[in-house]
Each structure stands twice: as structure tokens, then as C-alpha cells.
Amino acid sequence: MRLRDLTGTEGAAAPSGSGAAGARSQPLAIGWGGRVGRNVAYRLAGVTIVSARPVPLLRHLRVEAPGLLHTALPAPPTLGAGWTPVFEGLAPLGSEEVRVACDAGDAWLRLRIATVEPFLVARDGSGILCSDVAPEGFAAEALLGPVLILALALRGVFTLHASAVALPGGAVLFLGATGSGKSTLARAFEDRGWRRLADDILPIVPGIRPRADHRFPQLKLPADSQIATATSLPVALAHVYVVEPAPAGGTAASTALPPAQALAGVAAQTVAARLFEPALLDAHLGFCRSVADDVAVHRLTYPHAPASVDEVVALVESDVGLRRASAE
Amino acid sequence: MTGVPLSPQSRVARPARVLFREIRGEAVLFDPRAGTYFALDEVGTEAWTAMDEPTSLADVRDRIVAAFEVDEDRAWRDLLAFATDLVEHGLLDVEAT
After folding, report:
1. What ipTM describes this predicted complex?
2. Sign of the CA dihedral A242, A236, A121, A132?
3. Least enclosed by CB within 10 Å: which of A161, A203, A322, B40?
4. Nearest by CB to A260, which of B19, B33, B39?
5. Cβ A259–B25 below 8 Å, yes or no?
6. 8 Å CB contact of A267 and B28
């Protein structure tokens, strides 16, 4: 009988309160200064997003506005509304660490990110309310970072810290904290002619076979280096690698993870999980279980040195059946 | 740590905040307060499931004996080590007697 601590360097969560999965049939509405409209629509990770104003970083996802679909948002919180702390601390956003606070009210979560005007996210996942000022620059990153990612999670779409490449058979994901080498690995595959899908942030569309929606804006990358194209579609997951640094002098290795470790490995690399309330955390564990059940999850021990990239690529190619394992 | 030695009569309860998911005979515990994940093997999963409601460790031991056909002494030694580990990680509450 064993209890094994699986916690890596980037554990998730410290929330309280209760969350609820939103109705998926209605669009996710983004309102500005109390004005909710459907002037512009986008489609991301199986969710239709309608907004009263254009969101420039989502322009490649624009679709015909769904005029007949109903959007019902909870009543905005009153001035004297009470808030219960869910999380307060530093969190990565793009290439920076910023102060983030999340509080739960009756129907809304309030996110305060650095000095940006607070955002509200409906606890049923039906929408987001922003200040009247259209977000640009850092505020746009805040909206498309923790705010939208939390709203998608409330609708059952969880987002992983992952780079990814498309190989025969499906998407191969490299999960890892910043600096783990996951971007380097994705680029190494791109250099060998494979399609790079994501660099850092990857929403996963739930379903019989989970799919990676790589069209999410990669906030670490400049606007002219975004990977996504309008025509590409989510790609079914084939393999997931949890990237961990090799010990000093260690070599690259790929090890299939037992089910519980696979589940925890995926869970620990979910974006914004510290903002999740208990019910959403429970749903999140269910999501991680489905990924660990459906997809081969490996630990990839990576020395993160230029000389080891070829070795790691060969290991992955062997795992996915692109080449026979070395007989050495 | 409770500071009190565990015995078969100790009554234990799972903290409500600790989340649990089974997967192919194993299980994961997640403690949101600490942000920590733990894996349980098959026997640990059976023991954790038996602690769904506040119960005595003797009852948990008996359930393990029945499920895995091990002798009582061996089951108790394993359970004592496991329960102590859970208590040390804040994953199990021990009722004061």
C-alpha cells in the first residue's frame, strides 16, 4: 500500500467556493462596459465567442455571427457585492510574472491582473465583462490569457502549458514549465519538416478523442510570429510528453507513465488552475483522467542542451513509430 | 501530524477538500490547499475508498483483508504505514477520542 507524492515544480490550485460548468450550447459573450452584443464572432476550441467589439488577436478565428443563438449573462454584481478570495499571487502572463487576484461572488468571478481594470467571468461560463476601454497591449494579453482561459475551463475546455507538433497519427504535446525546453523541442521537429502547432498555450477540446486547438494566440510570440492559420482544425492528441530536466550529466530518456502519474502530470501543467474553485478543480481532474486514459503519456527526461536535441527527437520518433528504436 | 499513535480503534475521515480520481486500478489524490498530487496503488485506493465515511482503521483493515486475501497482521502493518503517511501529508483527519 503506497502513497506517492507526484507533485512537480509547478503544482496547481488553492481555490475555494464553487464553480459550475456552463451551458455549451450558447455562445461565450464578451461584453464591454456593460454592453453585450454579437457584432463579431469567433470560433475556438468548440466554443463560439461573440463580442460587441473586435478582438484583434482572435481575428484569424472569425466566423459568421450566430444571429439566432441566445446569450444570457447573469446580472452584473452590485457595487456592494461581497467577494470571497480564490487566489492571489504571482502568475505568468506572456513572458512576464504579474500579480493576479481572483475572487468569487454570487454569479461572477472577478479577476484583477496587475494594474489592468478588473475583468468579470460568469461562474456558469456564459461570458466575460471587460471595462469600457478596448484592451490593447498588456490588457489584451490579460483578456486572452487567464480571463479567457478561465472562461473556457468553466465550459469544460481546459488549457495546457504545452508546445506541440503534428506527426503522423496526431498531435504530440510537450508539457512543461517555462524553461523546460518544450519550445526548443517543438522547433526541432519543425526544423525536420513537421508542422509546429503551438509554443506555450494549448486548449484541449474534450470528446471521445481529445483534440488540441492550436489556433489559440501564443502570447509569448510577437504578432508576426503567430503559428495559427484560419483554415487549420484541431488535431487529435496522439502522445503527451511531460518534459522534466535531466539530472546533471544525465541522458535523454522516455518512460511510459503509469496511469496515476500520467493524470497528475497533465493536471500539473494546466494553465490557470490556481484560479479554479473546488467544483471546477474536480471537473479538471476528470478532464486529466480522460487524457491519461485515451492518450499515451510519457515522461521525457531532457538535458536541455543543443547536443541532446537529436537524441530526444529520435526517442520521440521511436515512440510514435516513425523509426525503429536503436539496437544499441 | 496528530501526535497520537494510530491504533485499530482510531477513527479517521478524509478531509472534504481533498479530491480523488480513480484511473485503471490506481488513483490520484489532489490537495488544493497545498497544490500537491499523490498517487495511490491498488491497495491504497481500496483503503482510501473505505474511508469515504468516518470509520475506524480496524474496519479499513478488515476490508483490505477481504479484498486482497492477505493476513490480518500484514494488512494492519501496511495500513498503519499508509495512514501515518496520509496524516503526515494532511490528507487524513483523525478524530479525537
Report:
1. 0.83
2. positive
3. A322
4. B39
5. yes
6. yes
What predicted TM-score, i.e. pTM, was given to this entire model?
A: 0.87
Choose, out of A3, A261, A294, A297, the residue to mutate when testing the contact with B (most B CBs < 10 Å): A3
Tell me the pLDDT band of A19, cut-offs 50, 70 and 90.
very low
pLDDT at site A28? 93
Mean pLDDT of B63-90: 95
Residues 6+ apart with CB under 8 A from A179: none
Beta carbons within 10 angstroms of residue A2's beta carbon: 14
pLDDT of the residue at B21: 94
User: Which pLDDT score is estimated for A137?
Assistant: 81
Is A281 close to B32, i.e. CB distance below 8 A? yes
The CA R_g of chain B, rounded to the nearest whole Å, is 13
pLDDT for residue A240 is more than 90: yes
A221: CB partners within 8 A, 6+ apart: A199, A200, A227
| Binary contact (B23, A278; C-beta < 8 A) | no
